[in-house]
Amino acid sequence: MTTETGTARAAAAPAAETLTLGKALNEGLRKAMENDPKVLVMGEDVGKLGGVFRVTDGLQKDFGEERVIDTPLAESGIVGTAIGLALRGYRPVVEIQFDGFVFPAADQIITQLAKMRMRSLGAVSLPVVVRIPCGGGIGAVEHHSESPEVYFTHTAGLRVVACSNPADAYTMIQQSVASPDPVIFFEPKRRYWDKAPVDVAAAPESWTPLHRARVVQPGEDVTVLAYGPMVKTCLEAAAAAAEEGRSLEVVDLRSLNPLDVDLVVASVERTGRCVVVHEAPVFSGYGAELAARITERCFYRLEAPVLRVGGFSTPYPPSRLEEHYLPDLDRVLDAVDRTFAW
């Protein structure tokens, strides 16, 4: 059941608005809740406070405490409760307050949420969205700047996506809520305040499908693959490279599992070179899977090995040192330079 307040806001909304990524997520959640009374929002401080990043701001006021639920500080209990609600026909959207807090819920996510459809031979689906603010760049303390995506991309039964800009945040969160399967939804916390136009009136049929990648910067010389917080960094690198006469094609993967392999392969076959960029450590990171897939599919079209740029194989450092840990424009451009050394 939609509220009069929510309905009025939707009716008055212009076709395109300039929104921050955080506000775009808020609007997407609001739209999903208006469209389906079975959509619930749950998590620590998501109600009265509106979330530590204010992504759920105003939702409890407009939809009530029965649909926007402040939970105890117990991630395993939050996800476990969401599983039970999904079994009863609801569509819970769970917020993990910070990326490093997801690990107490790993048992519920990996051994229950991901496996129920297979366990029931397809008779039972669990439409649960687990929202996880991810990555560094905000000067946070320990356990608040992790990049745990590979734990979940390795887990069969989970869909794993990562938004990088306000327009995708608005559409992808709604598509994730509508998915019949559980979705791990990564939000780049240092991009929450980035602004861009969002067409809130566009028909869902016109949206990019949830599990499609997108070329966000066409180029000819090198394919640069990224997702989440690193997409903006790679676009900045592409702009700097253009001043030196090199044309980088930046691909926003958007979906990590399933992966849009065909778009990736088409881009790499066209450029002949590839650099993969992510915040997580390079060793056993998501880039390793991408490099292997590309080598298998594009071996005879590659002019150089697939190179990876990422964090170091260390625990995330204190905030005073994080600018040295996080991949930046210079490290991306250095990898681009190295692809031309072959």
TrEMBL record:
User: What keywords would UniProt list here?
Assistant: Oxidoreductase, Thiamine pyrophosphate
Needed cofactors, names only, are: thiamine diphosphate
Segments forming domain Transketolase-like pyrimidine-binding: 19-194
Which InterPro entries does this one have?
Answer: THDP-binding, Transketo_C/PFOR_II, Transketolase-like_Pyr-bd, Transketolase_C
Please give the PANTHER family that the UniProt record associates with this protein. PYRUVATE DEHYDROGENASE E1 COMPONENT BETA SUBUNIT (PTHR43257), PYRUVATE DEHYDROGENASE E1 COMPONENT SUBUNIT BETA (PTHR43257:SF2)
Question: What protein name is recorded for this chain?
Answer: Alpha-ketoacid dehydrogenase subunit beta
